[in-house]
């Protein structure tokens, strides 16, 4: 490992601690450190965190090659910090991730997601009604209304609950409000080495908070699981329309494993989707000319009252551009990490990654690399116009990762998010103060706006709606 590591540039490392002292900064600053290293050493940088060798790769072609390789099919060691909440499964990796992913995958494919269209539209309509009742002069954080919508959508589709059941899931509201804080706790423990020492973690009071969150998530998962077990006693299951929870139950998995995967599927679907929806609405509020383009396109393609279908979404090109710019600007995974299981060569044969190396892919930095993105720190949906996309390396945009461990819910999330935006924009005109670039970012596991997604909403005068 030491011999092979010599071929990769990086900062000088100290005995025992390596480069760990370099990263002993506020979690928000750690991505800046990675960016500085990449700027100094190039697209391939090594750094040691104690005895662990990390190699950061920002070359787009090698990113695709590595993420799609069968030599790099395990999550990296940072995902250990998720395991208290989600176990060794789909999100965190481990020996069961591939088998569990295969079980639930049919509930995320295009055929299954098409069956969710009615639920998506109904919940999106309800969200538009809630937003239409807001004071048009009052600014509010739209995320909290959106997350209720995405949560209800997930409960009634992937979780297989009825509307009544989904409104009465144990500790549901608490989970919706506390999920962000839970992820913040995970990231804090992940990035501050002294919290890795159990006694310090315990004495800091954070172990007690972690236990509170674990109990909260377990109560929610247990309730969903019990509801579906009861339903399966008298329901006839259909393979094509079966929800993800039923697939796990009928596969005969251990109940504890099922609960952990239920929460994994729940939180990665409703929380991440809510952030992206809120991001799209905020972008449109700040970009009135793009909001009108999207609005006019919606009326021409979908109309004032029709249910949003897949065919409609395929033809909403302006919406797709704004959606992709949100994914670029607000990466759902700021950095991802994989473990190298077999030696693999990159950089045209100049670098060989040793076994047990931690591979780091800096998605946030890749999505802001000026070699591929004109004025990368500005919000410009037009960068996704076809003529601009053709000029850019296609591997410079990887919002859902790549390969066998890519985002399981990308098809599901895309349809849910776009359906919600269509239902909201055709009923409401959104406004916001200042510019998007002035808004402070909070970068932890994902990238989001530090002070929320603050907009105003007022009803549009749609004569055809009332006619």
Automatic annotation (TrEMBL):
It comes from the Eukaryota. Its cofactor is heme. InterPro entries: Cyt_P450, Cyt_P450_E_grp-I, Cyt_P450_sf, Cytochrome_P450_Monoox. This is Cytochrome P450. It holds the Pfam family p450. May be involved in the metabolism of insect hormones and in the breakdown of synthetic insecticides. GO terms for molecular function: heme binding; iron ion binding; monooxygenase activity; oxidoreductase activity, acting on paired donors, with incorporation or reduction of molecular oxygen. It is found in: Endoplasmic reticulum membrane; Microsome membrane. Belongs to the cytochrome P450 family.
